[in-house]
Amino acid sequence: MPNSRDISVQGATYSLKVIDHSDIKPCGDCRACCTVVGVPEIDKANFQPCKHECGTGCSIYPERPGSCRNYFCGWKWGMIEGDERRRPDNLGVIFDFQAFPAPGVLRAWEVRPGAASEPPARYLMQKLERKYGRPFLVIDQALVQRCNARSLPDGYWEAAALAEAEATEKARASGILDGLSGGRNEPTC
User: Fold this and answer.
1) How confident is the model at residue 16 (pLDDT cuts 50, 70, 90)?
2) Closest Cα partner for 147 from 51, 71, 46?
């Protein structure tokens, strides 16, 4: 089986790593994405705790929204090498990749204020910027507040959702997602 496959989305070509179940790291006690990343299907804003989070994980895990099911945490899915020190709750930063707008954006979500400026996170961002040939967008609470204060063009989120769905479908059709559940693999409450 090849280690990667190329797919084309919105006019950009991406080389996707084929992930084996043994490559997926467990979330463990990390719940950073549950607090930092927004989930439009349940009206959860960025940097707000999820009302479905509980002591043992997600209370709606079997029926979790697509945004949660398909979320690409760079540490969990192998984009970030290393041990638990680089897990988002320990590092203070979640790394991910958003395919829309093409050619895609590397994102660093601050789990705690200032974490993206700390040496361990800066080192990883520089390493990944060299590897993927694009800079990071650092997302912190101040950026989200500034973006929420301005309006985006009509249809922006619909176009973003369609592009994400197209990328997911192409990855699924190419076999990259075969056998993977996606998202967190945690027990329900």
Assistant:
1) low
2) 46
